[in-house]
Amino acid sequence: MNTLGAYLYNLVHPEDGNVGFIWFNITEKRRGKEAFLLDIVVEEVHRGKGYGTQTMEALEQKAVSLGVDRIGLHVFGHNVRASSLYRKMGYEVTDLTMYKEIKG
Q: Is the full-model pTM beyond 0.85?
């Protein structure tokens, strides 16, 4: 909570109450000020209601107000729902990490 550049918000809807949270950091990089999404959680019972989209839009608004030049994030390859949301919001793949399990 006291980490410089860290932001943590509860996602609260007037009717549904607390529906999740978002956590991101802002740091100064070579290419400017960058926000990095550390975690976004919409509780399962509230998924599919647009809260993820609304939260990502709010993140962008907050980032602009803080003078941020870009927003980065990591998404696991198996997380199709999150991947779809981020692509819909205009995020592009910049890196791809691959692993192969081996038994020896």
A: yes
Quick one: three-class SS letters along 44-100?
HHHCCCCHHHHHHHHHHHHHHHCCCCEEEECCCCCCHHHHHHHHHCCCCCCCCCCCC
DSSP for residue 30: T
Q: List, for residues 46-96, the tens digit of each pLDDT value.
A: 999 999 999 999 999 999 999 999 999 999 989 999 999 999 999 999 998
Residue 43, by phi and psi: left (phi above 0), alpha (psi -120 to 50) or beta? beta
Q: Backbone phi, then psi, for 103, in 5-degree steps?
A: -110, 125
Structure tokens at 46: 């509230």
Cα 20 off chain centre by: 12
